[in-house]
Specification:
By secondary structure, this protein is α+β, with helices and mostly antiparallel strands. Helices cover about 35% and strands about 45% of the residues. The chain has one domain (about 5-120): Nuclear Transport Factor 2, Chain: A, CATH 3.10.450.50. Pfam families: SnoaL_2 (PF12680).
Length: about 120
């Protein structure tokens, strides 16, 4: 993947966490994730788009109005990328969470996401 493609994929990935309309979020999931993608972080191990989307939906329900944004540069090579993100309500000065994700891509989609939380809500 070119760096431009990686940047687009990462931004679309973050938008899957922000999109609250189920139909639009489902379309994003189909564009971003491989059908058999795996997502893991300290709170969940989800396999397949449906399980990952259920987890994202649960996070949105627990933290309404929180938006995920890229924080810093994306570092990528050999179908892998790493990046830091922040999650905060619109207009907030301080994030409620800061995380670091490492992703493996395959055929332009995310195959595996491994998330680390640097700061998280209590």
């Amino acid at each position: 993947m070119t760096m431009t493609n990686v940047e687009t994929l990462v931004r679309d990935y973050l938008e899957t966490w922000n999109e609250t309309d189920p139909a639009r979020r489902r379309a994003l999931f189909e564009r971003v994730y491989a059908a058999d993608a795996v997502y893991v972080d300290p709170h969940v191990a989800a396999e397949g788009r449906e399980q990952i989307e259920q987890f994202v939906s649960a996070v949105q329900a627990r933290y309404p109005g929180v938006r995920f944004t890229l924080h810093g540069a994306i570092d990528a090579h050999h179908d892998q990328a790493r990046f830091t993100w922040r999650a905060a309500p619109e207009g907030a000065r301080e994030p409620v969470a800061i995380g670091f994700d490492v992703v493996v891509t395959e055929q332009g989609r995310m195959k595996r996401v491994c998330g680390f939380l640097d700061e998280q809500p209590g």
